[in-house]
Every structure is written in C-alpha cells, then in structure tokens.
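User: Second chain of the day. Same drill as before.
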Amino acid sequence: MKNSIRKERKKEIISGLYELSQSEGLENVSIAKIGKHLGMPPSLVMHYFPNKRLLILGLIDHILHQYQLIYKPIISKMENQPRINPELLVDRLFSRDWNLLFDDGVFFSCYAFIFRDASIKREYKNLHVKLRMTLKTLLDKDEVLMNGDTGLLAERIFVVIEGAYYYLSMMDDPKTYDEKLKIFKDQVYELIYSEINRLEQPARSG
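Assistant: Same format as last time:
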C-alpha cells in the first residue's frame, strides 16, 4: 500500500512539473512553484524529489512512457499479421500525435541538460535506445524484414525521424510543414521498401 501511494504521489509531482514546464518553461520551474501548483508544501515535494535534477530524471522517464504509446496502434494491428504495413508504420512514426503525447518545448529543454549532467545524458541515451528497440521489435514481426538487419534499419529510420522533428519544429507555415513532412516520409518509405526488395531478390532469382 505504501509503495502504491508513493508511486502515485511521484507521478502527481512529475505531472505538475510537466504542466508548469509547458506554461512557464522548465528553466523557470522551482520546487516551490510545483508545490504551489499542486497545493502541497514544498517539503513534501522534496521528500520525493530532494532536488531538481531528480525531478528532471523522473520527467525523462515520463517522456519515454508517453513516447512508447505512439507504437500501440501498430502493435495491435500487427498481432495476427505476417507483414508490416509500411503506410501505417510511417504515418504513426510521423504522426502529430507525438506532439499530443508530449510537448516538444519540454522535451528539448530536458535535452539541453545532457551537456551538463552525465546521468541525464545517460537517461536520454536509454530513452532513444528503447525507442529504437521497440521499432526493431516491430520490424522483426515482418516475415521478410526479419531476415535482414532490423536493428540497422531501425537506426536509419530514427536518424530521419529525429532530424525531421528537429527541423519541422521550426516550420510555422502549414503548407511548408506538409511539404517537408512528405520529403521525410518518402525517405523512410525508401529505406523500408529498399530493404524489402533486397531481401526478396534472392527468392525471385531462385
């Protein structure tokens, strides 16, 4: 029971940090502000998170949990399917649902700490590794792609995705955004279909 209460309280505090970071910016959030926002004494916040660094580590863990949700529709669709649907996969990977799951401004504010804190850098690395591993697991479900290097394919796909999100976050004009988005999606389609064609070639030749 105690562990359950502790877990819920920590989740509540991290949610409060996230909400304040959205409206005020992570750099402007203090433990005192979190306490006021949640209607609890700062001493209680510090009981669970003695310093802001630990709060940020908790927030990064929250980011990972939220980002993993983007894969849920693909996983459920593929449960009884021998082949992956590239269109569904690419649409989900580039979906604006990422923005609904987690605020880009908070994500990049957390990211800036990797240059000053080795632990935060390690946690961000773990976050990106887990996202790649989840994608690899999806690619491994495809009866053709599973015969290739799905880890390398997942890595190449994420190089495009991460570059795309960084660049697209600067696009204010919807038309320009959609044009650039199509370019990045086409790049991922090319990666997937090129690998499928490469793996199917020996079968066709035989």
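Residues 1-50 form a domain with the Arc Repressor Mutant, subunit A fold (CATH 1.10.10.60).

User: Great, on to the next one.
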